[in-house]
Amino acid sequence: MNIQQLARDDGQMVRQYAYEDSDVYAIDFGPAGDETTVDVADGTVIVVTGDDQREFDLPEDAGDAQAFMKNGVLTIELEEDR
C-alpha cells in the first residue's frame, strides 16, 4: 500500500507538502494514534497500533526518509536524493 492509497482505502486524511529539497506527508490517525509506533525500513514505513500493522511503500525516488508520530499524526519526511 502506498501513502496515497491510505486516504482512499482507510478514509484517513493525508496531506502532502512539497518543498524545494523535500516532501512531507502528514496522516491523521486520530485518538488511536497515541498508542502507535512507527519505523522506516528498506523504503517502507511500518505503523503498528496494538495488533494492527500497516506498511506503506515510499516512492522509488525517495532519498533519506524519517517518520515520527505526535498527537496521533504520522509525519513522513522525504529528502530528495542528490
Describe the structure.
With 82 residues, the protein is mainly beta. The protein has one domain (3-80): Sandwich (Immunoglobulin-like). It contains one helix and seven strands; from the N terminus they run αβββββββ. It has a four-stranded antiparallel sheet with strand order 1-2-7-6, with helices on one face. It is globular and about 35 Å long. The N and C termini lie far apart (26 Å). Pfam families: DUF7127. This is Hsp20/alpha crystallin family protein.
Number of helices: 1
**Cα end-to-end separation:** 26 Å
What is the level 1 CATH name? Mainly Beta
Largest beta sheet: what is the strand line-up?
A: 1-2-7-6
CATH architecture: Sandwich
Order of helices and strands: HEEEEEEE
Total strands: 7
Helix content: under 10%
Number of discrete domains: 1
Q: What do the pLDDT scores average to?
A: 79
Assembly classification? single chain
Pfam family, one: DUF7127
Protein name: Hsp20/alpha crystallin family protein
Which keywords apply here?
single chain, 82 residues, mainly beta, Immunoglobulin-like, four-stranded antiparallel beta sheet, three-stranded antiparallel beta sheet, 1 helix, 7 strands, 10% helix, 59% strand, globular, Hsp20/alpha crystallin family protein, DUF7127, HSP20-like_chaperone
Short description:
By secondary structure, this protein is mostly beta strands.
